[in-house]
Amino acid sequence: MTNPAQAVHLLLERKETLAVAESLTGGLLAATIVEVAGASAVFRGGLVAYATDLKATLVGVPEPLLEKQGPIDPDVALSLAEGARRTCRADWGIGTTGVAGPDSQDGKPVGLVYVAVTGPLGRQVDELNLDGGRASIRAGAVSHALESLVMLLRSPSANTSA
After folding, report:
1. Structural domains counted in the chain
2. β-sheet bridge partners, residue 80
């Protein structure tokens, strides 16, 4: 598991900033980042868009995408990450969306999560199928988001996957 301090340290080294747009993690990702001393030098802010309509109005996810794909979708995760970057004027953005349970949502199973990271070295979106209860699923999404960010920050060149 990636220590959030690794992400903060790498951002400090690179003199770059981070913002997040969270759905299923509901602020847990931002809270995890700001627990690190010195995070204020790199963390611009976070948006919690738990309700689907706020993904469009607060973060800028295109309404047609939400209408067609629903809120739990890899393209929505990417749009959340890009919206965080744009809204908070950050170098890097992370977006999280998925189903933490206890019930499925819009035909999507509990534990289905999409985590996206976008920035100057590329972008990445991952589909996760996590086990456990709400707390475990949310914590797993946060951990994966930080691992993905650290991987991209350590990448010598652009890394794009979808």
Report:
1. 1
2. none
**Percentage of the chain exceeding pLDDT 70:** 94
76/7 Cα distance (integer angstroms): 23
| Cα 80 from Cα 58, distance rounded (Å) | 10
What count of other Cβ atoms lies within 10 Å of the Cβ of residue 129?
12
Beta-ladder partners of 161: 124
Give the separation between CA 48 and CA 58, rounded to whole angstroms.
9
Task: Specify the pLDDT at position 157.
Answer: 57
Rounded distance between C-alpha atoms, residue 8 and residue 83, angstroms? 20
Predicted TM-score (pTM) of this structure: 0.94
CATH number of residue 60's parent domain: 3.90.950.20
> Which ranges constitute the DSSP H helices of the chain?
4-14, 28-34, 52-57, 63-69, 74-88, 134-154
CA 29 – CA 98 distance, rounded (Å): 14
Q: Which domain holds residue 131?
A: 4-161
Q: Does residue 140 contact residue 99 with C-beta atoms inside 8 Å?
A: no
